[in-house]
Write a sequence for this structure.
């Protein structure tokens, strides 16, 4: 057994070393993307000729990355965020626009946030295991994951910003549960607000509230504590989310008009016309068989060029590790383990009903990789 442990530790150290080399090689191999100076006029022209402006057949489809770049530039200029691409909250686009202002490149912030995510993953696992080896393993698995690398090479996308705020939420909330210091609860609320200000607010808000409610229920917390904690978290969620619409209010718009816009956003997604029954659980055949029913006309079965056999291996290993940790009661003892497990379960259920795209799996696979690393200990 002793020799096996030594072998495992050496293997993890080597894996981390080669993972770092691979990540540096990957970034260097794509360094032209981060050296490009943004041509604002070109992105504006793309947007003006895209499906967002031209409704007939003579249109050019603009990618999400190009769309976010143009809108981010517009937001930083002072454009009211409720006038362009307002079906998605503004924080991510403000970050992209800030990257353009500071670095003259829309992708640099994505790279910075990706590197901070690696640090958070390492720190989260370390403070909960007090061992460097599962921390190195979780970081290495993320560094070599396609879902993580895709957020770098196809930047800017929103998922890497979401991941950063989600990891901050895990960190501060678990610290609050261990040390009961209110500043950690406030930081958890701010992190939750950041997470919810990146993509569709209402769906992700519903997920977070289920996560917190499930956590408190399983932990058998007193009702008074639950109400106080959730009130603080919701207060800071509200302040962060509404705060990023400051330009809207500076232009003299009212709270009633703001609520009307939020109602329109809900209606926008409800009227998408996508048949849930046809895309139900689409992420599972994507992971295990590289085939899923896309939500375009006719719902064709498509395959993803960058699929890897590691997808089903990591997913199944993560689920088995989760079950093991639960049966051995590790999940019940540690707030971070518990929160991580609840999020994985809730997000997996959420994906059953979601029109899937591979990059959406980042928020599932990173927690699963952390669970695998926790299992190793």
């Amino acid at each position: 057994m002793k020799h096996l442990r030594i072998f495992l530790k050496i293997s993890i150290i080597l894996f981390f070393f080669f993972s770092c080399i691979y990540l540096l090689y990957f970034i260097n191999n794509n360094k032209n993307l981060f050296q490009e100076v943004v041509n604002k006029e070109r992105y504006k022209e793309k947007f003006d000729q895209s499906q967002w402006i031209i409704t007939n057949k003579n249109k050019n489809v603009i990618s999400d990355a190009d769309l976010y770049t143009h809108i981010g530039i517009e937001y930083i200029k002072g454009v009211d965020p409720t006038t362009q691409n307002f079906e998605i909250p503004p924080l991510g686009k403000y970050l992209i626009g800030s990257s353009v202002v500071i670095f003259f490149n829309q992708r640099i912030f994505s790279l910075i946030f990706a590197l901070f995510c690696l640090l958070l993953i390492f720190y989260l696992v370390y403070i909960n295991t007090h061992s460097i080896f599962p921390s190195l393993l979780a970081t290495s698995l993320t560094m070599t994951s396609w879902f993580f690398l895709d957020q770098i090479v196809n930047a800017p996308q929103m998922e890497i910003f979401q991941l950063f705020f989600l990891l901050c939420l895990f960190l501060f909330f678990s610290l609050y549960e261990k040390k009961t210091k209110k500043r950690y609860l406030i930081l958890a609320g701010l992190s939750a607000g950041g997470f919810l200000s990146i993509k569709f607010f209402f769906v992700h808000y519903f997920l977070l509230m289920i996560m917190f409610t499930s956590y408190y229920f399983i932990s058998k917390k007193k009702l008074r504590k639950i109400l106080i904690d959730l009130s603080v978290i919701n207060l800071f969620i509200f302040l962060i989310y509404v705060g990023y619409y400051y330009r809207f209010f500076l232009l003299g718009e009212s709270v009633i008009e703001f609520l009307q816009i939020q109602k329109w956003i809900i209606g926008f997604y409800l009227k998408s016309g996508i048949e849930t029954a046809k895309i139900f659980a689409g992420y599972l055949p994507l992971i295990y068989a590289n085939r899923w029913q896309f939500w375009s006309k006719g719902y064709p079965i498509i395959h993803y060029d960058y699929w890897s056999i590691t997808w089903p291996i990591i997913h199944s290993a993560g689920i088995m590790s989760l079950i093991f940790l639960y049966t051995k009661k590790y999940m019940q003892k540690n707030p971070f383990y518990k929160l991580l497990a609840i999020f994985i379960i809730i997000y997996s259920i959420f994906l059953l009903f979601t029109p899937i795209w591979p990059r959406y799996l980042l928020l599932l696979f990173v927690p699963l990789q952390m669970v695998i690393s926790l299992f190793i200990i």
Summary: The CA atoms of residues 80 and 251 lie 8 Å apart.
